[in-house]
Amino acid sequence: MAEHGYDADVAIIGYGPSGVAAANALGSYGVSAVALERDADIYPRARAVTVSDWTMRCLQSVGLAEASAKDMDVTAGLRWVTYDGTEIFNLTFPAGQLGYPMSYAIYQPLLEQTLRDGVARFPEVEVRYGVEVESVEQDADGVTVTSRDLASGEKRTTRARYALACDGGSSITRKQIGVELQGDTVPVRWIVIDAKVKRWWPNRHILTFWSDSARPVVDIALGRGNHRWEIPLGPDETDADFDTEDKVWPLLEDLGVSRADIDIHQWAFYSHNIRMADRWRVGRVFLVGDAGHLMPPWAGAGMQSGIRDSFNISWKLREVLAGRMEGAVLDTYQAERQPNVAFFTEVAIGLGKIIKQELTPEEQAAMAPPEGEEPPPPPILLPPFYVAGWLRGAPTPDSAIGKMIPQPLAANERGVILPLDELLGTDFVLLGDGVDPSTLLTADERAGWDALGARYVAVRSADQGTEGDDEVVDIEGSLLAWMRGFGVRAIAVRPDKFVAAADTFGLAVPA
After folding, report:
1. How many CB atoms lie within 10 A of CB 320?
2. For the purposes of burial, counting CB atoms within 10 Å of the CB of 67, is it exposed (0-12), middle (13-18) or buried (19 or more)?
3. Beta strand pairing status for 33-37 and 125-129?
4. Which residues on neighbouring strands pair with residue 217, listed in sequence order?
5. Measured on CA atoms in the order 15, 19, 20, 23, is the torsion positive or negative?
6. pLDDT category of residue 89 using cuts at 50, 70 and 90
7. SS3 of residue 365 by DSSP
8. What is the distance in angstroms between the CA of the first residue and the CA of the last residue of the chain?
9. CA–CA separation, 288 vs 278, rounded Å?
10. Of 15-19, 67-71, 322-326, 364-368, which gets the smallest average pLDDT?
C-alpha cells in the first residue's frame, strides 16, 4: 500500500487499453494505484483489431490470457489482392515460440471489459469514473493530480509517487508536462465500418488487404462474429457523403458484400497519424500508449504497443517502489519502448505502401530476395526484441540479450506440467542449461541478483532427471534449443521474460 501522505503509489490518468493494462499489472504486483477516467462506459467502437502472442503473454502474466482468448479467433493468415482477384502476397502465421498463436482477431470492447473485470481482483487499485483531470503538478517527492467530478463539479486532488499518462492522443497530461507529439497526420480520411456477420462468405476468415491506388480496403474478421472494413474517402468525398446507412452500403457492395451477408451496426471516420513524443518521461510522469505515440493501423500494433508500454513501466515501478532498484532504471522505459514502437511504425508504413500500391520500383526490388534464396521472414513475424535498455551486453541479432525467451510446456521437479511462465512467475530468474546457474556466478554477481530476489533454476531436458528443489524440465526442448542456438549456458530473465544478461557477456546485474 502507499505510504502515509499518498493516496496511492501510482496515479493512472485515463482508463483505456493502456490504463487498464497498467492497473492489472500494478495490481498483480501489489502496487497501489488510483485510475481516473472520464467515461464509465467502454468506448463502443472496435478500434484495434488484433493482438499477438507477445501481448497474450503480457495478459498471461496477470492471469487474463485464457479469459481474453474466449472472445478472440486465431488469425488464419493475411493476403494482399487486387480487385481483379490477383493475389500479390500472402502470409500464413507459423506456430511461434511464445506459447500462443502468433495472431488473434479481437473485438476490442470485449477485451477491455475482460481487463476491467480483471482489475476488480486487486483491492490495491481504485478506479474513479466520471472525473476529468484538470491539472498535473509534480515535485521532488510525488505527483498531485487535480480532477473534477463531472456530476457534482467537486474538485479533488490525488497524491501519488508516480503518474502514468494513459489519456490518449489528445492527452492533457502530455500538455501539462510540456511535451509535444512530433510528426504528421496523413491527409486522407478513412471510414471504418463495423458489422455483424449473418452468413459466411468465401475466405472471410483471411485478413484481406484489397490493394489499389485509389480505393485500398482493409477487410478483416473480428472476434465474436464481427467484421470490419476500413476504406479511404476519395479526394472529392467528405464524412457528410456517408451520413446514412444507405449511403455507406455502396462501398461494401463494390466488394461483393450484400445485405444478406451482414448487418451494419456502426461506422466512424478517422485520420491516420504518424507521431511520437521525444520525451516519454518528465520527472515522475510517464507517457504511455497513444499519449506518447500514434501510428497507422496497418501493422495492428497501436493498441498493443500501449499495452506493452504499460507492462514495461509497471515492473520497473514495482522494483523502484520496493527499494530494490534505483530510480534511474525508469529511464530505460523510453530506451526500450521507443525503438520498438518506431520499428512497428515503420512496418505499418511499409505495409500501407503495399496496400495502397505506393511502392517505388526501388522498394519493390529491395523486397525481392537474390535469385535462388528464400525471402527473409517479414518483419512483423520477428520475435520480440529490444535494442537498448536494462541489458548487459550487446543486443545484436546473434545474441540472446534483449530477446524474449520461448515459452514451451515445462514441468517442475514434482512433475507438474504447465506453460513455462506459470512455473517461473513474474520475478527475476536465472536459468542454466543443465546446471544450477548460481554455481556460475561470482560472489558479487550472486549478491546483486539476490538483492533483486532472483531465483536460480536449472533447466533439464525431458530425458534427464531433476536434482534440486527448484528446477524445470523443458519437455518440448525449445527453450534449451533456443539457448544453445545463441551459445549461452546461463541467462538472467527479467519479469517481462526478456533476457537481461547471459554468460557470454557476464552475468552481473545490468548497471
Report:
1. 18
2. middle
3. parallel
4. 210
5. negative
6. confident
7. helix
8. 28
9. 13
10. 364-368
Do the beta carbons of residue 449 and residue 430 sit within 8 Å? yes
Contacts of 341 (CB under 8 A, 6+ apart): 276, 292, 293, 295, 305, 309
Look up residue 397 and give its amino acid. P
The whole-number average pLDDT for the span 358-385 is: 70
In this structure, what C-alpha cell is assigned to residue 447? 549478491
DSSP assignments along 179-195, one per residue: --EEEEEEEEEEEEEEE
CB neighbourhood size of 446 (10 A): 19
Length of the chain, in residues: 511
Place of cell 513474474: 426
Contacts of 83 (CB under 8 A, 6+ apart): 210, 212
Q: What is the pLDDT of residues 304-340, one digit of tens each?
A: 999 999 999 999 999 999 999 999 999 999 999 999 9
Question: What are the beta bridge partners of residue 498?
Answer: 404
The phi and psi torsions of 433 (rounded to 5 degrees) equal -75, 95
Q: Please report, for the chain, how many H helices and E strands are present, in that order.
A: 12, 26
Given pLDDT bands bounded at 50, 70 and 90, which one contains residue 31? very high
Q: What is the pTM of this model?
A: 0.94
Residue 314: DSSP 8-state:
H
Q: Which SS3 state, helix, strand or coil, does residue 395 take? A: coil
**What is the DSSP track for 329-341?**
GGGHHHHHHHHHH
Yes or no: say if 161 and 7 are a contact pair by the CB < 8 Å rule.
Answer: no
SS3 at position 17: helix
Please name the residue that has the C-alpha cell 487499453: 17
Strand partners, 458: 432, 471
Cα angle 255, 211, 103 (rounded to 5 degrees) comes to: 90
C-alpha cell at 107: 473485438
